[in-house]
């Protein structure tokens, strides 16, 4: 499912009315081509404002990749991170502030669990107890909230398509192709192991009428 540029714009506008947080997350999905859980699991150090990039770590196939950071999101993301940092500092004052780290990283960097750079960009509004370790932590936000908001925003925007988070990733790739970006670059941005997976977007363009001229239009 691919949205047109106009539909993408209307969807994001409606999301902005519903939730500034969900707008920011959806705008990142459309602006970077990230998968939903890749966005949800972003950590502070993964966003590089100076280099204008986002590092997607441990994506599908356990691979890391780099995606462009949308400049239009610089200000809202900066403001969001300032709020999250205040929340983290409040947790620290209360003797909390831990975040989940994979076992190997936790062993190698035992103090990293409380460091700001390892915190989630989109943390949960609630603390939770890890059933394995018993530690009280602030996990990342649950993805269901964004999924529900996108569905509601699509209805408000009168988009007669089955819109979900993955549609934003599909639209990112298709719109890059429309603008003339080469297929190999898009393959790298999406994290596809095989270019044949990325090639499906060229078929989407053809089905949409961009690659085949109707005989009626040639009369």
Description:
With 219 residues, this protein is mostly helical. It has one domain: hpI Integrase, Chain A (Orthogonal Bundle). A three-stranded antiparallel beta sheet has the order 1-2-3. It has a two-stranded antiparallel sheet with strand order 4-5. Strand 4 and strand 5 form a beta hairpin. The longest helix has 20 residues. It is globular. The relative contact order is 0.17.
Report a brief summary of the structure.
The protein has 219 residues and is mainly alpha-helical. The protein has ten helices and five strands. It has a single domain (5-207), classed as Intergrase catalytic core (hpI Integrase, Chain A).
Domain module count: 1
Largest sheet: 3 strands, antiparallel
CATH topology category name: hpI Integrase, Chain A
What's the CATH H-level homologous superfamily?
Intergrase catalytic core
Unreliable runs: 214-219
Look at the structure and give the CATH class.
Mainly Alpha
Listing every helix as H and every strand as E from the N terminus to the C terminus, the arrangement reads: HHHEEEHHEEHHHHH
Provide the helix percentage: 40-55%
- Computed Rg: 19 Å
Strand order of the largest sheet: 1-2-3
Alpha plus pi helix count: 10
Strand content: 5-15%
Question: Based on DSSP secondary structure assignment, what is the total number of beta strands?
Answer: 5
**Termini Cα gap:** 31 Å
Write a concise keyword list for the protein shown above.
219 residues; mainly alpha; hpI Integrase, Chain A; three-stranded antiparallel beta sheet; two-stranded antiparallel ribbon; 10 helices; 5 strands; disordered C terminus
């Amino acid at each position: 499912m691919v949205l047109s540029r106009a539909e993408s714009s209307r969807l994001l506008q409606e999301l902005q009315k519903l939730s500034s947080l969900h707008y920011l997350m959806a705008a990142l999905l459309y602006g970077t081509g990230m998968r939903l859980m890749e966005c949800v699991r972003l950590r502070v150090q993964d966003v590089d404002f100076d280099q204008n990039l986002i590092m997607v770590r441990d994506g599908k196939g356990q691979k890391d990749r780099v995606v462009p950071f949308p400049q239009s999101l610089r200000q809202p993301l900066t403001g969001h991170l300032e709020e999250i940092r205040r929340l983290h500092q409040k947790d620290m004052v209360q003797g909390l502030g831990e975040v989940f780290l994979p076992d190997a990283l936790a062993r190698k960097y035992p103090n990293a669990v409380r460091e700001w750079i390892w915190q989630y960009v989109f943390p949960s509004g609630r603390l939770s107890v890890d059933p394995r370790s018993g530690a009280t932590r602030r996990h990342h936000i649950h993805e269901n909230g964004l999924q529900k908001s996108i569905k509601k925003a699509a209805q408000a925007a009168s988009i007669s398509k089955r819109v979900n988070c993955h549609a934003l990733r599909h639209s990112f790739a298709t719109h890059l192709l429309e603008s003339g970006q080469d297929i190999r670059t898009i393959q790298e941005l999406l994290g596809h192991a095989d270019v044949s997976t990325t090639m499906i977007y060229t078929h989407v363009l053809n089905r949409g009428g961009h690659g085949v001229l109707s005989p009626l239009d040639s009369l």
